[in-house]
Structure prediction request, 286 residues.
Amino acid sequence: MKITGESKVFGIIGRPVIHSLSPVLHNAAFEYLGLDCCYVPFPVDAGQIVNAISAIRALNIAGLNVTVPYKESVISCLTSLSEEAMMIGAVNTITVSGDSLVGHNTDGQGFIASLNECGQYVNGRSVLIIGAGGAARAVVFSLAKGGAHSIFIANRTISKGKSLKEQVNKYFSTTNIVFTGMEQDDLKRVINKVDMVINTTSIGLLRGDPSPVPRELLHKDLFVCDLIYNPPDTELIRYSKDLCKGYMNGSGMLIYQGAAAFKLWTGIEPPVHVMRQALQDALQQS
Ligand code: ATR
Prediction:
């Protein structure tokens, strides 16, 4: 990649960002299309988010991704929000338009695109979501928007699960949203009422982690999604290969949320196959 004085600079802010694979995805896409652009990780210390956002204008940065822990706190620094970002209450992409900084959230869109790629659709489905954090919020809103019939939210911290249910109900009053605990008995009560399970928690990130859904509860009518992509085969995914009708990990969501950000910034259709190959290579190396 050749960087010139005219190169457009994109990047990601977060803490930490050292393990982010977004630079790999975007730089591969820029290179493939021959665009004079580059994508850089910017580690931002606690307390520096306002300065970091001011630097977008000062340094002529062309667009940013935002990751943990700034997806919510960045909102007060922006000029406006897309409808999605407003509903979800979190931003993962910033576009620059003149003096305006606009916050978007492409996580839900990325999830739905990766699901569709697996031949799965949301309309009319009944879904069990494990977790109620940032990732869960984006996914739950996208499911409700996509016409899911019922969404069961299982979370360890009851108040967070209930608060997510209330937020979604404000926008989508017709979707049946139910909060449930995360104990085996709680999951057992709902698992036969759903045909899709989505793990949005970090259970599975570490080798040796258990499955967030016990093996004996999985059944053949389930399509199982684990948003974790590294490792690619969590315990939940391994069980699902044997017991369920289909499964996907989180690599597709990572690619498609990035692809949607790329389109917002450049207006150009992203080369998804190139981004996917770059991600696969990087994961193999790691
Ligand atoms: P993200 O942005 O990746 O969603 P997050 O907002 O910190 O991260 O949310 C993490 C989610 O994983 C939360 O729902 C968290 O449950 P709590 O709300 O109870 O904190 C869930 N989680 C993380 N580790 C967990 C564990 N060991 N057992 C159960 N839930 C866990």
Q: What stands out?
A: The longest strand covers residues 8-14. Residues 68, 131-136, 155-157, 160, 182, 200-203 surround 2'-monophosphoadenosine-5'-diphosphate (CB under 6 Å). The longest helix spans residues 251-266. The chain has ten helices and twelve strands.
